[in-house]
Amino acid sequence: PGRDAPAQSRSNRTFSMLEYVLACLCRSRPHELVGVVGLEIHAQIQSNTKLFSGSKVGFSAPPNSLVSFFDASLPGTLPVLNRRCVEAAVMTALALNCTINKKSFFDRKHYFYADLPAGYQITQQRRAVAVDGQLAYSLLGGRKRNQIQSRTVRIKQIQLEQDSGKSLHDDQRSQTLIDLNRAGVGLMELVMEPDMSCGEQAAAAVRELQLVLQALGTCQGNMSEGQLRVDANVSVHRPGEELGVRTEVKNINSARFLSRAIDYEIQRQIEALGRGEAVLNETRTYDSKSGFMPEPNLPPLVVYEDRGSVPAGLLGAEGVVVLEGLREGLPELPSVKRARLVRSYGLLPEHSFTLVNEDGLMEYFEAVVKETRKEPRKLIGWVTNELLGHLKHHNLSVSKCPVSPSALAELLELQEAGHISSTVAKQVASLSPSVCDSVSLSVSVRALQEGNKKVLNRLMGLVQKETKGRADPVLVRSLLEEKTS
Amino acid sequence: MLGIHQIYGRRRVQLNIILPLLCRYYYASRTDNMLSTNVKTLRKTRNTPSRPVTVARLYSSNKHNSKVPKVPTWEPLGEDRIPSLPQVSSDLVDKLERLALVDFRTKEGLVCLERAIRQLFLRGDTVTEGDCAEKLLPLSNTTVEEYFVAPPGNIPLPRREERASMLKHSEF
Question: GO CC terms for this protein (chain A) (predicted)?
Answer without folding.
Answer: glutamyl-tRNA(Gln) amidotransferase complex; mitochondrion
